[in-house]
Amino acid sequence: MNIKSLDPRVTRANIDENAQDGVLNPLDHFQTYEVFEQKKRGTHHIHVGSVHAPSPELAMIFAKEQYTRRGQCVNLWVVKTQDVFVTEYTDADIFETTASKKYREPDAYKVIDRINAYKERTKTKSTI
Amino acid sequence: MYGNAYVENNGQQHNSLTANEDPIQLAAFEARIAAGDKIEPHDWMPTEYRKQLVRMIEQHAHSEIIGALPEGTWITRAPGFRRKLALMAKVQDEVGHGQLLYSAAETLGKSREDMTNDLISGKSKYSNVFNYPALTWADSAVIAWLIDAGAIVNQLANSKGSYGPYCRALDRICAEESFHLKYGHDNVVFLATGTATQRAMVQDALNRWWEPIMHFFGPSDKMSVHTETLMRWKVKMATNDDMRQTFLDMYVPKIWDLGLTLPDTELKKNPETNKWEFTEPNWEVFKQVINGNGPCNKERLAVRRMAEEKGRWVRRALLSEKAEYVAPLA
Question: Shortest Cα distance from A98 to chain B (angstroms)?
Answer without folding.
Answer: 23
